[in-house]
């Protein structure tokens, strides 16, 4: 099984801890492949992603910002070529850490139910 992780909206404390927690649990406990999507929804649109392994998720707890990068892009505010670029059938879930505006984009992106989301606020 394969899952994607992205961060959207502004940075706040704990984003890297959330990425690490979700990623390491998915890899070690469930044997999943974890895809890190760079630059929030822009990374999804522009196909900017890579596979994350356990070593890439180690030592990130004290780093500021987010190892994945972020953007305030709402993909439903304007026309984009194809959304999402990652084949949706290849991912079982996209886990996001996002504020309210990116959260509304997440709900619009989901066909039946919103994907798992870690809400954030500073």
Q: Tell me, what is the CATH class?
A: Alpha Beta
Largest sheet: 5 strands, mixed
Specify the helix fraction band.
25-40%
Strand content: 15-25%
Count of domains: 1
- Compute the number of strand runs: 5
Overall structural class, as computed from helix and strand content, comes to: alpha/beta
- Rg, please? 13 Å
Named CATH architecture? 3-Layer(aba) Sandwich
Task: Output the CATH topology.
Answer: Rossmann fold
In spatial order, strands of the major sheet run 3-2-1-4-5
Describe the global form.
Answer: globular
Please tell me about this protein's structure.
By secondary structure, the chain is an alpha/beta fold. The chain has one domain (2-119): Rossmann fold (3-Layer(aba) Sandwich). 27% of the residues lie in helices and 20% in strands. It has three helices and five strands, in the order βαβαββαβ. A five-stranded mixed beta sheet has the order 3-2-1-4-5, sandwiched between helices. α3 links the parallel β4 (93-98) and β5. The radius of gyration is 13 Å and the shape is globular. The N and C termini lie far apart (33 Å). The relative contact order is 0.26.
Give a short synopsis of this structure.
The protein has helices spanning 15-30, 40-46, 100-109; strands at 2-7, 33-37, 49-52, 93-98, 117-119. By secondary structure, it is α/β, with parallel strands linked by helices.
Brief descriptors of the model:
single chain, 122 residues, alpha/beta, Rossmann fold, 5-stranded mixed beta sheet, 5 strands, 27% helix
How are the SSEs placed, and which strands pair?
Layout: E1 2-7, H1 15-30, E2 33-37, H2 40-46, E3 49-52, E4 93-98, H3 100-109, E5 117-119
Parallel strand pairs: 1-2, 1-4, 4-5
Antiparallel strand pairs: 2-3
